[in-house]
Amino acid sequence: MPAFAGTELTCLRGDRLVFTELDFRIEPGEALMLLGPNGSGKSSLLRMLAGLLKPFRGRLAWDDLEVRDEPDQHRRRIHYVGHLDAVKPVLSALENLAFWARLGGAADPNAHALDALTRFGVPHIAPVPGRYLSAGQKRRLNLARILAAPAPLWLLDEPTVALDRAAVRLLEGIIAEHRAAGGMVVLSTHADIALPGHRVLQLDEFSPVAHDEDEEDEEHAL
Question: 0.85 cut: is pTM over it?
Answer without folding.
Answer: yes
